[in-house]
Every structure is written in structure tokens, then in C-alpha cells.
Design brief:
The chain has a domain at about 20-120. The chain is built from two helices and no strands. The protein has helices at about 1-10, 20-150.
Length: about 160
């Protein structure tokens, strides 16, 4: 078996180097130049353009995001200011309503007190008038009631 390998190695070489190697190398160079011009260079340009487009879009997206964040912050600031104004207006309206309520209540209380005082004065006047009118008759009525209760005349 070793003799078969030795005879193969000594008889014909595994790689035969002759003038076809130069032809193959020439074809290789020709294909390299053609493939480089028609395939590799356009592909590399396309890849660079794509990378530039992606990077440009990324930069533009970051700029848009920054503008959107700034707009959102401005909007939130305006919204907070509007809320503060609305709260302040609400406080003013509530204060005015409380003052108006107090004023109306005080006026109603004063009117009610005036009506009570007037009614009390009228009642006192009527009571005094009735007393003056009934006082002279009171003695006579008392004598009549006592006489009826006792069953005899009271002097």
C-alpha cells in the first residue's frame, strides 16, 4: 500500500504547474476587474448611500424628537398656567359668592329681626291697650266670678 502512494507521488504530480496557470490567473484578474466595476463597487456605493440615508434619517428623527419634546414641554407649561388661572378665577368666584351670600344673609337676618321687633312692638301696644280696656272691667268680672263661686255677693 505504501508502494502505491510512492508510485503516485513519483509519477504524476498532484498540481501540474504550466502555462494554463497563467491563463487561469489572467481570467481571474479579468473577472476581478469586471466584477469589481460592475458588482462590488456599485454594491459598496449603494451600501454607503443606504448607511448615509439611515444615519441622516436617525439624525432627523432625533431632531424631530427633540422638537416634539420641546413642544410638549411648552404645551404642558401653558396647560399648567391655564390651570392656575382657572383655579384663581374659581377662587375669586367662590370668594365673591361667599361675600354675596353673607350680604344676602345679613340683609335677610336684619329684615327678619326688624319684622320680629315690629311684631313685638305691635303686640305690646295691643296688650297694653287691651289691659287698659280690660282693667276697669277686671274688678267687676272678679266680683262676679267670686260671687258665682261662693254663691253669695262679694263686696
Amino acid at each position: 500500500m505504501d508502494q502505491a502512494l510512492v508510485s503516485l507521488a513519483s509519477g504524476h504530480p498532484l498540481i501540474d504547474i504550466d502555462w494554463t496557470v497563467l491563463v487561469q490567473f489572467g481570467i481571474f484578474l479579468l473577472l476581478y476587474v469586471v466584477a469589481n466595476k460592475l458588482l462590488f463597487q456599485p454594491y459598496l456605493r449603494l451600501r454607503d448611500l443606504r448607511k448615509q440615508g439611515i444615519d441622516g434619517a436617525r439624525v432627523e428623527a432625533e431632531a424631530m424628537s427633540a422638537r416634539a419634546d420641546a413642544s410638549l414641554a411648552a404645551y404642558e407649561k401653558q396647560l399648567a398656567a391655564a390651570r392656575n388661572r382657572a383655579n384663581e378665577e374659581g377662587r375669586k368666584v367662590r370668594a365673591e359668592a361667599a361675600a354675596h351670600e353673607k350680604d344676602v344673609t345679613d340683609k335677610a337676618r336684619a329684615a327678619a329681626q326688624k319684622a320680629i321687633d315690629s311684631a313685638t312692638a305691635t303686640m305690646r301696644q295691643e296688650t297694653d291697650a287691651a289691659r287698659l280696656q280690660l282693667l276697669p272691667q277686671a274688678n267687676a268680672l272678679a266680683k262676679q266670678i267670686a260671687s258665682k263661686l261662693l254663691g253669695r255677693e262679694v263686696a
